[in-house]
Structures are given as C-alpha cells and as structure tokens.
Amino acid sequence: MAWFVVEEHGQAVYVEKALGEDAIQPYGRVGKRVDLHDIAAGKAILSELPRRRVHEIVDEHGLTRHTEHTITSLDRLFEELDTVREQGYATNENETFEGFRAVASPVSPEGDLQGAVVISGPQTRFEGERFQSELPAIVSRVANEWSSKSSHRTTDRAFLLAESFSYRPRVSRSMSDVTYLKEAEDASLEIDQEVTEAVREILDDVRENGDDALHRLTQKFDDIEREEIQVSEEEIEQAHEALTEDERAAIDNTIENVREFHEEQLQHVEGFEKECSLNACENTRTSSASRRRSRTRCTGAFGRV
Predict the structure, then answer these.
(1) C-alpha–C-alpha distance, residues 16 and 156, integer Å
(2) Is residue 30 scored above 60 in pLDDT?
(3) With 90 as the cut, is the pLDDT of residue 280 above it?
(4) Is the CA virtual torsion 194, 216, 168, 238 positive or negative?
(5) Domain IclR-ED, which positions (predicted)?
(6) 112-140 average pLDDT score
(7) Are 160 and 146 in contact (CB under 8 A)?
(8) Which domains does the chain have, with CATH numbers?
(9) Cα Rg, the chain, nearest whole Å
(10) Which pTM does this prediction carry?
(11) What is the DSSP annotation of 156-212?
C-alpha cells in the first residue's frame, strides 16, 4: 500500500492512497490525522523541518508510545532524524503496530517541503534485502520524481502515486487540496456506526467459528453498500487463511481507530469552520452526492478482511 502524507498543525494527514492487489490496511484512511513521530512518513517530514519546529510539535502532541518499539525520547527522535537525513529515507519497524513496517521519503523540491511518499505492509513482506535496500531505493526514486513534478494538484498526485508503485488510485476527480481535505474530513464524520459494528461482528465471528463463518461473512458484506470492492467467498477464504495473529490484531485496531478518529475530526472540523469566512466555507462544502461517494470510499477500506 502506498500513501502521500502531508503535515498540518503538527500532525500527519493521509491525503492520497494507492493499493496493491494483496494490500492489507491496518491503519490510515484518506483524511486521517496521526502523530508524526511513530510513522515513516512522519519521520521523513520531521527530518526536513527546523529543529525548533520539531520541538514545538513534540511539546504540543507529545511522543505517545504505541508499541515497545515507538520512539518516546526527544534525543532518540533527533538521532533518528539525523539518520533519515543521511540516508534519504525513513523507516517504521513495528512502531505503530506490531507486525507492520513502512519506508518513506520526503518530497521537498528545492527545500519546499510538500509531504512524503510511503509504502507499507506486513513485516513478513518487508524483510531482508527487500526492506533494507530495494524498497528504500524505490521510495527515494519516487520522491525525487515527485519533486520534479511539484506543481501537480492533489488529484494528479493520486494517479502519480498509483503509477509509481503500479497500484490503483483511490481518487478520480479534480479539486483543490483544501477542498479535498475538507471532503475527507466530512466523509470520516459520516462513517456509519452500523458498518463499524458489522465489521467488528464479522471479524469476531470468523475468529470464533472459523470456516463455518465464511458463508455468514459473505452474506453480511452483501448487506453493506459498496461501490468499489466486491468480495467473493473464495477471496474471503483466502484472506482468512492468510491472516496472522498480528494482522488480525491490526484489523481490530483499525476498527477501534474509526471511533477515535470520528471524535478527533468532530473537533477539527469545528475549528476549521470557525477559522474560515462564510464564503470560504461555502467553497469547501461538498455536495450530498459527493459526500456519499466519499463515505463509500471510507467504508471500502474494510471491504477485504
């Protein structure tokens, strides 16, 4: 899975996504905000910021521990950022979730930091030479190519991301960066609580009842409106057999993050609307039809188990 991530108000914001055929999504959805210190893209971004700005971000957001591998010391963080600057890329080794790794590189044409490109996946797929040299080389190359195409709008970046990693883009219409982020936030607010509960129930059912739950799993997903992903019983069976304990735990964390993210975005959107003038807010408001499509994209993240 590949992402384009930007920094806003001292946090990382996922603005573009592209998926491989066998992508596993333990965290992240377009518009989600997370801390910078424990994700590869975040460390790539921090490595390009002045030391004073890094201090300000840490003072405001802290260095929350998510796993035993998370950096929680400011001195250790600065050491890591020095390494990132030297090698040109950042890594995440089980720092956000156990069993998942990522490699990221900053997009900073002529010193103008725009964000970071990152590719992530299960540790079992990110090992040895692939994790240590192959993926860093790919991500660094993509970041350099993007730096030479820095004038591209958000939607253009979505397709560049997909093309760079031979993935499929998740965005198909043109809009400004601000409008896109606002729509992503609105979409996150509209994630149907019933869908969240249904997915949790499905996963619990699969874990407890094994193969007997596969048929019920298929039927359950038929009840959830989706435009992009069709799940067959064979695909579900393959996914179920391939899941490791770490991956199942990551899926549970994803579902829990939906609820937490919902509350975070309520607060953020309220602040966003206060800062905007009436006209500016009107320009960033999306139509009901667009918001329904965005909502489907968000729920689509759970389309595969």
Answers:
(1) 10
(2) yes
(3) no
(4) positive
(5) 1-152
(6) 86
(7) yes
(8) 2-173 (3.30.450.40), 189-300 (no CATH)
(9) 19
(10) 0.52
(11) HHHHHHHHHHT-EES--S---HHHHHHHHHHHHHT--HHHHHHHHHHHHHHHHHTTH
| Distance, CA of 252 to CA of 204 (rounded, Å) | 9
Q: How far is CA 75 from CA 49, 51, 69, 71, 288, in A?
A: 16, 11, 15, 9, 47
Lowest-confidence region among 88-102, 177-191, 252-266: 177-191
Start-to-end CA span in the chain (Å): 15
β-partners of residue 118 are: 3, 104
What is the C-alpha to C-alpha distance for residues 272 and 275, in angstroms, rounded to an integer? 5
Work out the angle between the directed axes of helices 154-165 and 135-147 (0-180°, nearest 10).
150
Q: Residue ranges of the alpha helices (H) in 190-284?
A: 193-209, 212-222, 233-242, 245-275, 278-284
Out of 53-67, 68-82, 252-266, which region has the weakest mean confidence (pLDDT)? 252-266
Q: What is the predicted pLDDT for the residue at 206?
A: 57
1's CB contacts (< 8 A; 6+ apart) are: 17, 18, 19, 20, 23, 24, 25, 119, 120, 121, 167
Each residue of 198-254: pLDDT tens digit?
556 655 665 566 555 555 555 555 554 444 445 556 655 666 666 666 666 666 665
Residue 40, amino acid: A
Q: Which residue in 166, 213, 147 sits closest to 18, CA to CA? A: 166
**CA pair distance 117, 103, nearest whole angstrom:** 8
Please state, in angstroms and rounded to a whole number, the distance separating the CA atoms of residues 35 and 13. 9
